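Got a spare moment? Tell me how you read both lines of this record:
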Amino acid sequence: LSGYPGYSVWGNQITLQAGTYLLSASFPFFATSSDVAEIRLKNETDGTFHGNKMFVGGGVQSNICFAYVTIASAKLFSWQIIAITGTLTFLTPATLPNTIINIWRF
C-alpha cells in the first residue's frame, strides 16, 4: 500500500479508504486434528466483523481467509483469532514472512 495516500499498514492493522475491497490472508500456523481456531476480518473502527469465519484444524498447515467489504470512509482493519479450542501453534518467526495479505479494490 505504500505510495497510496491515506493507506497504511502498522503491525497487524491495515487502514483502508472509502471503497469496495476483497481481502485475503494466508496464515502460517498448525493445528492438530482436535484443535480448532476461528479467524475473521475485524473492522477495528466500528467493532464489526466481515467475511465468513475461517475454521482451522485437522492438521492443516496453511489456510486462506477471504472477506468482501464496502466502506464509506477510512477504516482500520485487522485479522483476528476470535476463538481457540485446544492448542494452536504458530510456526517459527522465520515462517512469518510467509503470511500473505492480498487486497483488491474495485
